Amino acid sequence: MSDLVKVAVDAMGGDNAPEAPVKGAVDALNESESLYIYLTGVKEIVEKELSKYTYPKERLEVVAASEVIETAEPPVAAIRAKKDSSIVVGQTMVRKQQADAFVSSGSTGAVLVGGQVIVGRIKGVERAPLAPLIPTARGMSLLIDCGANVDARPSHLVQFAKMGSIYMENVVGIRKPKVAIVNIGAEEEKGNALVKETFPLLKACENIHFVGSIEARDIPAGDADVIVCEAFVGNVILKLYEGVGATLISEIKKSMLSSLRSKLGAMLVKPALKTTLKRFNASDHGGAPLLGLKGLVVKTHGSASALEIKNGIFQCLQFKEQNIADKIKEHIAM
Amino acid sequence: MSDLVKVAVDAMGGDNAPEAPVKGAVDALNESESLYIYLTGVKEIVEKELSKYTYPKERLEVVAASEVIETAEPPVAAIRAKKDSSIVVGQTMVRKQQADAFVSSGSTGAVLVGGQVIVGRIKGVERAPLAPLIPTARGMSLLIDCGANVDARPSHLVQFAKMGSIYMENVVGIRKPKVAIVNIGAEEEKGNALVKETFPLLKACENIHFVGSIEARDIPAGDADVIVCEAFVGNVILKLYEGVGATLISEIKKSMLSSLRSKLGAMLVKPALKTTLKRFNASDHGGAPLLGLKGLVVKTHGSASALEIKNGIFQCLQFKEQNIADKIKEHIAM
Prior knowledge:
homodimer, alpha/beta, 5-stranded mixed sheet, 11 helices, globular
């Protein structure tokens, strides 16, 4: 077991719990022999769900957690009060190095707060950013930071650039990932106070491949691999991405059902269209890592499917096997 | 002539000048008898273009401006140096009340700077925001501010909310427009320092219909009519809107051409699809007003068509006939 990558999975978090996390965990175990999984949650519920599946029982353990943190609960209070919740129990296992990583579709706020106060940051890391992968015309880009800590300082953004580069290079496999800072124009003198202060620091940073500013318009085209921004802006980008996509797709669908002619056409284009829209669906990609912590924490969507959770678990595998935490420690200390 | 609404139009600005602005102006004149138009630009070029059309010659005048400000020029320097440019000449006419409004597809930076330093702000207005209308599932929302003055203060955002409400009510015709502030969560305690400080001020503001926070995800659905934000965030929203839309549409088109079956289907859905995508194309809606100035300045897209410019001119007509500047003066002074 010592060679296995140990991932704690929140069996109670998200809209589709316990079904999706349990199935995601079982599927991951059946696909990879390098995994050991802890499912944290209410024992009877999790075991009942598990009984539906066949899986290597010697590599799965249910860890009892009697409480559940709801999405609507204020995160800091919830993490403090519910010591026996699936999130606190799972993150405590990471802090104690009983698990290498933790995957949860539960309350984003609670997972973020728990990441900071339970798992804890790597020494030298000033902030642990939430960095989802977003779909682009060329593949995927890492949007860093979309977390809850807004009003960042320039030094935070520089660390985000470094951590994001390490992640994209080692976990996603992009060689020399292009780093850009979100700005309102391409010229160096443009931007708000934060961007203007950060720009020269990124330019001077030796161990990243900084390509300058990126306007929001060019993000979906995939012009940069690591997109650095302050969390308020990142949150707006992430959510607008989903919002514009969802509205546009729903309007297109409506228009296709507006006449007999277009209904017929819709039947014919459906398979091709489905492939494209699927690629643009952020939720298939395994969730967002919370970087800079002593172990990996992956936040999957509240509506995550078993597939997303399985992919989130595989992110943890890659993260551990590539020693990302050590690489971050080295580079941030530099 | 004294009853006519006088609009100066930049005949040299934008990718399609002089063709698009000249045609836009001519079309507007032919459609409305309440308009008088000044075309600012290089006399011979504008007159040659005008010679192609039939229009009420007694309501159009070419105003000579020998210089052109290019998009790439630093705005402040350009406005200072090129006193005889189509932008400076047109905006000076507004300042001198020779024209009620100015429409330009030229350099956004120069139009914004000129608006502040040439036309000048209404007394009491702290900042003149650029406020484009963006398409939503329910119609249009006003996104205010998307201009060049970033790092706003709470008092600026409150003024944006007031001016945006007046515009949506009187120019666009939305009764009691819903005002929301862009935020990273719906709860009042969420947000960055600026949003947290602004929220209670908006809540206490009597002459607007404040509905609270809006997450970027809900903007495309049309959940609010006036969307208040600081200019950096506004700029990101505006450009990402265009970017996600463009990328998604191009990917959908590609997917539809991927097989014979889908090609056939594409032919059938094309008319319905075109209507939907057209509605989601921001560029048909006549550009973005720069509010809070002593006259109206409308910035149309750099790639504006004659139709967009015509619609921009009609915005000016509505703006003048509804006495928006006076209404802003009253409300801001309150």
